[in-house]
Amino acid sequence: xxxxxxxxxxxxxxxxxxxxxxxxxxxxxxxxxxxxxxxxxxxxxxxxxxxxxxxxxxxxxxxxxxxxxxxxxxxxxxxxxxxxxxxxxxxxxxxxxxxxxxxxxxxxxxxxxxxxxxxxxxxxxxxxxxxxxxxxxxxxxxxxxxxxxxxxxxxxxxxxxxxxxxxxxxxxxxxxxxxxxxxxxxxxxxxxxxxxxxxxxxxxxxxxxxxxxxxxxxxxxxxxxxxxxxxxxxxxxxxxxxxxxxxxxxxxxxxxxxxxxxxxxxxxxxxxxxxxxxxxxxxxxxxxxxxxxxxxxxxxxxxxxxxxxxxxxxxxxxxxxxxxxxxxxxxxxxxxxxxxxxxxxxxxxxxxxxxxxxxxxxxxxxxxxxxxxxxxxxxxxxxxxxxxxxxxxxxxxxxxxxxxxxxxxxxxxxxxxxxxxxxxxxxxxxxxxxxxxxxxxxxxxxxxxxxxxxxxxxxxxxxxxxxxxxxxxxxxxxxxxxxxxxxxxxxxxxxxxxxxxxxxxxxxxxxxxxxxxxxxxxxxxxxxxxxxxxxxxxxxxxxxxxxxxxxxxxxxxxxxxxxxxxxxxxxxxxxxxxxxxxxxxxxxxxxxxxxxxxxxxxxxxxxxxxxxxxxxxxxxxxxxxxxxx
Length: 629
Fold this sequence. Notes:
This protein is mainly beta. Helices cover about 5% and strands about 60% of the residues. The chain has five helices and 34 strands. The chain has a 22-stranded antiparallel barrel. Strands 3-8-9-6-7 form a five-stranded mixed β-sheet. A two-stranded antiparallel ribbon has the order 1-2. The N and C termini lie far apart (about 50 Å). About 40% of the residues are buried.
């Protein structure tokens, strides 16, 4: 192993010893179980058989403006690759599956962009202050969530302010970064209204890495706002609504690596989502719910001719989605819950690309998929299990039958929990893959996956937990451009991902915590017999927090990312070196509703790249203030 990994392991061991020496001097208490909502049936986390990580931002996280992809780095099996800082493309890989193979939801709205080439989601937008928690489900989840949940699901639940209160936040830091937000909630009659507004602006650093001679700072600006309501209607009916708008401007490089600078390459993006959910809670054995959601995005890029690049470039991308869901949850008895439902969605998109004299345009097209599903959860004593079965009709492209099975058992005498899951997933071709000029192929089939995992969790003492999970996934019918046929999209790829996740965690009622997680991953392209790009074989994450003097909260985190494949600007496969990054943060309660905080990223000022040719921030200091009203 590389020297930096050894160093981080030593630091981890020292941190463990220091934290445990404190642990046994503290009183402990039973913490409230976390309830998982990413499944169709809300379930305590310790009764969920499939692999799931729950990320709850700390108070310091929420008092800062760090992007949520920084939080996702702490989840076992998750790799994050950012191409040049905030506002630039950020890819999240779950156990080696492609970032386009993950279904992403924010407050129940599916966020995968219909106008992107493979229907992916860019994580470079939300920040930790807007988030209450994140649930990461690993493995094939189509048996519950249908199309596109081929590699996993990331469920993001945004933050709600306590009723009849408000919180104001401001931050300033490196790269002339300015962030601010307002959270407020008020009871109005039978309704509670929540507001969440945020602003983020930065002059940036060279998104095309400065180590190749690039010097143009890539700035970024965005504004987002969320309005949500919860209303108690008559006769036990409840109405929940959420509306969110987002607007951003990003300055982009021409490319990564040498010659990547571009003085006038700009991307504008506007996005809006809305969801309304009505449920009836007047029957203790049956709870019906109907929900309608809407997603719309418009993205444009402009790159006028300049002294570096003589040709102009323009892109226009429109995407929209309508989704209707109807669920029925039946409480069959104290240990058996059944959900039966149907959902249907329509994706629409159009694309216009122009580079010099070359124009590629895909007119407005649409596709629809409808699914019928059921999920049953059962618990008896220390045993629990879930079974999900789903049938989908991809209109014009055939049917898909998927499933997910997960049993588990806890041995109370030893504090050991054994569990596992297996499932089948599928991902329908994107609009671009079907209808794009030249490259599109209406004869494509859906990508498919089969995955399983086996997990053991061991309670080592009050607040101490060790967990290890073996996993494997097989992906077939992957859609790739065929280099022998003008790069036309075809089902010609396959991959096998397998590995081992190990995590150790400690938490105390006093606020101290420690998490160490290591992932060993082998993600192989079966056709080329080589590692998939941007999937490190080894990764290690350390996070430790300590509360001092009741007013001061201090935390450190470190991550090691091992050697991995990537591609250079000429599309040749290269090996990227490993790196280790340390960060620290602190917050202080002043009184009178005020809190101050500071954050120092990349403490050792390391120069490294996550994606070949693209820049990362050097040592960066941020300070801020929060006021509770």
